Amino acid sequence: MFPNLHEAYLDSAFPWAFLPLVLGPRLVRAHFDSLAPEFGHAIVFLARKCPSVKYVSLLMGKDHPPDSMFATMLADAVSLGLQNVERLHLGTPDVVYKPSAILSTLSRMKSLDALILDLESPSTSRLPSIPSRTSLPSLTQLTLESGGPKEVMRIMSCIRDLSNLATFHATLKYGPEDKEADISDMIASLVQTLPETMLSIHLSNVDPTIFAPSPAVFRPLFRFNQLFDLTVNFVFDPPLNDDDMEALSLALPRLKSLSLPLLTGSHAITRTTLQGLATLLRNCRHLSELSLALDLTTATNAAYDALPPWVRNTQITSLSLGNSPMDDPAFAARHLLRLIPRLSSLPEYNGSDPNAGVWEEVERLVKQHASRVPTQTLLV
């Protein structure tokens, strides 16, 4: 009925019996959302009817049982024509329940470049053992969503070869049973499986305030010294300090983008000062995007103020500091602009925070400075 359709988004409201009327040979992007178990064979039909499809998103409904026939249907679909898919998003409990069966099938998709897996925990606690490890050398991007550290480890334990992977992103969702040791084990599994040539790693927590690991847990990531982009969105206990900034910047000097946790909830404290920021900017000379929490209070930075180092970053124009502690807007603006003379905005501070008024004044001073001649720097 729609032979020229290039993209289809079908959800639980769609009458799946009419699927043959929608899918055609020119379809490039297919999104199946909340797919009921009895219509799991839609992936097979897609493979038969849509030889041009490049992007597939297949999210099963909440009632989809683990150990269903999905792995078999996926294998049939790949045999019938899904080998040319470049980007695949799977959301089904089967991914965690029997990852080896899923991943061994995906290894036959030679054009697969980007893989997104929703790590929905199966309703059963009895998970089959991992019989083998699978090579996925074509992947350059791997994203794991909404699983805890144990689910991430289960997936990584199934993979043997990710030699071309450049980007790894994981958004974690913690349960009350998760411990810091689970985070350490997860990091160890990543270090063991991801190639040393990684360019981008993002590790985020759905609720950063629910769990506060030690910064030392993430130090093994320093092995990836080619990183251009690093996000670690966890609230740390103890908080990050200037020594942590020095260790990170010495280990990852090629960073262009760095995002560390902003202050939130009951963990609204930081021990990183202007000295830590200066060290970071000195050692990571290519930084153009930066987000972190700083203690900008005058008393904490008195020694720094007396003898500030000569450090300049001319790539950063926007700096995310959240609700970092600060008591003197002129003092904060002066030192931030000394370090980052092209700074023009300070996004992401919370307008409902009691400290929001002084941050508005800092941003006013920053924008006032930015309105001058672009090459002019603030003389302090």
UniProtKB/TrEMBL annotation:
Top-rank lineage group of the source organism: Eukaryota
Record InterPro entries: LRR_dom_sf
Protein name per its UniProtKB record: F-box domain-containing protein
Organism annotation: Coniophora puteana (strain RWD-64-598) (Brown rot fungus)
